[in-house]
Fold:
Amino acid sequence: MAFVIIGGDAAGMSAASRAKRNDPSLTVMVLEATQDVSYSACGMPYNIADPIRAMDDLVVRHAEVFREKQGIDLKLGHRVEKIDRGRKQVQGQIAGGREFEVEYDKLLIATGANAPKLYIPGRDLPGVRVIKSLDDGRAIKAYLADRKVRSVLIVGMGYIGLEMAEAFHARGIQVEMSKPRPGLLSWMPEEMSQVVMDELISKGIVLHFGVRLTAIEETAGGLRVIMDKGELLVDMALMGVGIEPNSGIAAEAGLELGPSRAIAVDRTLRASDPDIYAAGDCADAFHVVTGQRVWVPLGLRANRGGYAVGDNVTGRHVELPGIVGSAVFKALDLEVARTGLSLQQAHEAGFNAVENYIQSASRAHAHPGSQTVHVNLVGDKNTGRLLGASMVGKEGVAHRIDSVAVALHAAMTVEEFSQCDFAYAPPFTPVWDPLLTAANQLLKKM
Amino acid sequence: MAFVIIGGDAAGMSAASRAKRNDPSLTVMVLEATQDVSYSACGMPYNIADPIRAMDDLVVRHAEVFREKQGIDLKLGHRVEKIDRGRKQVQGQIAGGREFEVEYDKLLIATGANAPKLYIPGRDLPGVRVIKSLDDGRAIKAYLADRKVRSVLIVGMGYIGLEMAEAFHARGIQVEMSKPRPGLLSWMPEEMSQVVMDELISKGIVLHFGVRLTAIEETAGGLRVIMDKGELLVDMALMGVGIEPNSGIAAEAGLELGPSRAIAVDRTLRASDPDIYAAGDCADAFHVVTGQRVWVPLGLRANRGGYAVGDNVTGRHVELPGIVGSAVFKALDLEVARTGLSLQQAHEAGFNAVENYIQSASRAHAHPGSQTVHVNLVGDKNTGRLLGASMVGKEGVAHRIDSVAVALHAAMTVEEFSQCDFAYAPPFTPVWDPLLTAANQLLKKM
Structure:
């Protein structure tokens, strides 16, 4: 049997490895458009922050290992352009121009996501970059190495924008950020987004809210960014205006699409064709809290989805329960995390939702070095159920959020969560963990 | 109605505050034997580590606040010696010798635990200390301030012994530790206890296993510790040989005792007398995983128990689900944590238990500064249920353990836990969190 995989990053290579380990007799072919497989895309901002480290440090496993040690037929520079479901065949172009056709018994689409640029004049100037692939990262790093980049405009203030702000800041580059709407990280309460904003501003990062780019022009020394309100002179611009599922060939093949045009898959990761799976950033998932389809492109889900597909194509039956949307990122010296539903998402999903915001501490009373930990919890007044959390603080945020994630998977009520036996020692937490204090306070509103 | 509380630390003062807030008309009297109330006993090692900070920094709320702001009749230096259940009266002595009697409608016993010394000659020498009360901490700190203490023997290698080892080490004191049996932290697999041992040894701490003290003598300069195998000359000795519930007056009053002679209480914290409650380190609890009574003296449980009693004596009905035994402590530069059952405890509780030990990393592939994270998970082969975890590492342990604690409260299977959606970002975790890797590996044995 031939198992063909389109895309050789997290989901694709996880599926390839798992399937081949489960069934060494299986023919496993991976068609990857670029020259890179199996790398930590999420590590790029931290790599860019360091002028010395090679971008190739982010490669988790090299192509030769997949080929020689694991017996996976890994084809680099093979861009799939069409899926012919009738003939069970994929067609495409090899770097250089030659065409190829490959037949499959089972197909996995693991094409990831694209990072689009704004459709404005000047978007293709060399100083205007996106960050998605390892080649994008290499291009940014080369640009920083070749030019005297003293200032950068980051268009967008999402996770990636904030992580890249830290990277450029670490290299001594003046960072400005812009977005067309007001508000930073609008899924958290204003008090918490203000904490993040204060951190950015305290580090000298300039934030422009409510401005839209209309064009970018090259100047003698750098770029002129023309906005609906004024203009900016910077040496470089990074477009971090979000990503979108790379689902074009799936859509053209008539596969069903879900939210945000991600490929719709069931809990076994199967698309609307019994022989085609999709996993990773190109596919949707079920939200454990709402039961609804969502598109949340994150790394763990891609790896886990790939594993599940590897199992399912080799005769094991694996159904994934879905996601709760847990995410964490660094914003300069802050840890910012979320899981489950924001208040707005909870309302949209039909819950009788209420939230409560508290400030607590990262360490015990009187323990030196304690930092403020900000917690917002969301609950459902009708059922008492815990629905989501967001957290911000200089320490003690990144792993705490997972406790809430587990509670969401277990469909715990706020009261049940409030009674959980958390570990306590003065260097790590107050005797009432910030999450427990938050739950106790939320209970009063429910 | 008169609500009388014996003991003014975590459980006692939590109960007093909660009851008075719920029902301001209630007469709430607290009888505390010492002059200290509401302090963070767990903070003492870290306070002792710092010669400058006053021990009174650890007081969370002062007596005057309880009296004047909260209207609690707080009596210091009142040692209760007898509970007369027939007359619903407690009797005792006031510091100085005068006797007192107080009548109660509802009584809470929150007498905490005692830290006994070994019954050997020399146990009462001034250089031989225990650490339990704030006065114990003050005495140690005064001793260190008054004398040139260059070396200390800590008898016992439990949480407190290890935290005190760090404290003395921080003050430049040579630390030796002893215990009569082999093995450190025997609830974790040997590979993990070796990691802790290596850390202690690397910091110059000398460990004596398999030695029993027979006597301690005063010498010109310090102490001669006589053991069954040889002797040691040190300037000071700390007896950290465990604690025991302070349940004497409860036992004399005929109240039922549970494991380790802790006062047996139901899920409302009521003892075997309908008008008497017990909470904190003197009381037992139900283990959520086994359903059995256990005695696990820890701070969060004391506070939570106190709150619940405050609710129950004022007509709210609160039942606590119980504990899972989550604990974390620092051992020099290591974080050490546990929750749920060890393999041995699981076997003793009748589970068909299996464990799996893994090493993972605290941060993503290629992220600088990553440390090894050691994880051991215990599961039940019959039901698939997750039973417990232990962890060791230089970072990323203290809060991760709580995710397992929540899973234990939810009675999750190892497989359900392995599918939880954890947050990922390179500075904080590999894409597969160490706990998820541990769960995936344990699944293969189940």
Q: What stands out?
A: Chain B is about 25% helix and 25% strand. The radius of gyration of chain B is 23 Å.
